[in-house]
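Q: Structure for this?
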Amino acid sequence: MFGRGFVRAARSKFVKGFASSARAPAVRRIGALGLAAGLTLAMTSTVALTEGKKTIPHGGLPGTPYERSFIAIKPDGIQRGLIGEIIARFEKKGFKLVALKLITPTPEIAAGHYDDLKDKPFFGGLVNFFSSGPVVAMVWEGSNVIKTGRQMLGATNPAASMPGTIRGDYAIDVGRNVCHGSDGPESAAKEIGFWFSPSELYNWTPADATWKYEKL
Ligand code: RTP
Ligand code: MG
């Protein structure tokens, strides 16, 4: 479905599309403007080609390299300067960033996000905290990103999180555990839809994709 052929075809169409648009006489005549147009065309082709043969659903395709998880850096992670550190861990692991925004959730958004916990005694405090400042909302993509992402975050209570995990390394208190991650395919799809519109997600092929996956 997303075989090596698909990636190769996408690449060669990208190269051909760019080369032919760069060779076109009109493009040569208008110089820099033409080059910009060519680049735009090439970039558009890449997006179209990546989506071409199979449209990746908004919530991702669990069980494939196109699985997606909603990961958020909570207000404490922002205040403590951990944005770069947390993003770097997901990048270095090899996952692909397909959406990102900085947003201060309203109490309604915070309550909607944690709706499944509305009967818990800590719900009020959780909503107040989560809506107390900006959060970094992201969607990361890759094989097993939901389960692996949760392992990278560590246990809910930092006291039980292993060293080497984000919460194990950077948090102490369960109410200040710096990051959120979807806990399963259903919650991932629900959370991605809750935080992002389809136009805010980007399908793209990293240049090193075949160095991360034996089979794509
Ligand atoms: P998250 O949704 O934020 O990724 O956290 P999680 O799945 O590991 O844990 P969850 O059960 O979904 O709880 C959401 C957040 O509520 C706070 N919490 N406080 N005082 C408590 O006993 C308690 N339990 C949970 C934590 O901040 C947790 O991340
Ligand atoms: Mg949770």
